[in-house]
């Protein structure tokens, strides 16, 4: 997915197993953020920054939706532990991460592996991707500010 593309309406199943669609949020812009793993330091910092600035993001017209390849139970623990006010998509089949092109090769301590590249897609109310905050740009502790710029 690139700027100008139309994001799919069906996004996947949320932390409770309910289908989540872009059209569930009429008139809202969507900040669809892909992150590597629940309950890890960077992902927790990012989610908590979005939580702490949720009122401001909502006021600016954004619905925040997180996506990782973790399962629903993991997402529920992550939400409960951090009181997250937004849904998380359990993309266990990797459909969304692959469709958006954020599943790729990563490296840690010289070991290469496949994983989610931390990326945020800002989607207009009509479903068009307006901006992409890429893996090298995302600041986990100040992500809400990046979205609001």
Q: What can you see in these coordinates?
A:
With 149 residues, this protein is an alpha/beta fold. It has a single domain (27-148), classed as Glutaredoxin (3-Layer(aba) Sandwich). The chain contains five helices and nine strands. A five-stranded mixed beta sheet has the order 5-4-3-8-9. Helix 3 (72-82) links the parallel strand 4 (62-68) and strand 5.
Write a compact overview of the structure shown:
By secondary structure, the chain is α/β, with parallel strands linked by helices. 27% of the residues lie in helices and 30% in strands. It is globular.
Overall body shape: globular
Mean pLDDT: 97
CATH class identity:
Alpha Beta
Helical content, roughly?
A: 25-40%
* Percentage of β-strand residues: 25-35%
Determine the structural class based on helices, strands and strand pairing: alpha/beta
Report the order of strands and helices.
EEEHHEHEHEEEEH
State the end-to-end CA separation: 21 Å
| Relevant CATH superfamily | Glutaredoxin
Strands of the largest sheet, in order across it?
5-4-3-8-9
User: Any idea of the CATH topology?
Assistant: Glutaredoxin
Instruction: Describe the largest sheet.
Output: 5 strands, mixed
Please count the beta strands (DSSP E, at least 2 residues each): 9
């Amino acid at each position: 997915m690139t700027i100008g593309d139309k994001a799919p309406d069906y996004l996947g199943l949320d932390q409770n197993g309910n289908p989540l669609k872009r059209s569930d949020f009429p008139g809202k812009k969507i900040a669809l953020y892909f992150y590597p793993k629940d309950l890890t330091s960077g992902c927790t910092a990012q989610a908590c920054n979005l939580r702490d600035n949720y009122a401001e993001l909502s006021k600016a017209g954004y619905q925040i939706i997180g996506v990782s390849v973790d399962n629903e139970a993991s997402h529920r623990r992550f939400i409960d532990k951090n009181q997250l006010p937004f849904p998380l998509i359990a993309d266990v089949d990797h459909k969304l991460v692959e469709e958006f092109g954020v599943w790729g090769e990563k490296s840690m301590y010289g070991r290469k592996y496949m994983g989610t590249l931390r990326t945020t897609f800002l989607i207009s109310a009509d479903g068009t991707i307006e901006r992409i905050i890429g893996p090298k740009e995302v600041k986990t502790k100040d992500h809400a500010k990046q979205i609001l710029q």
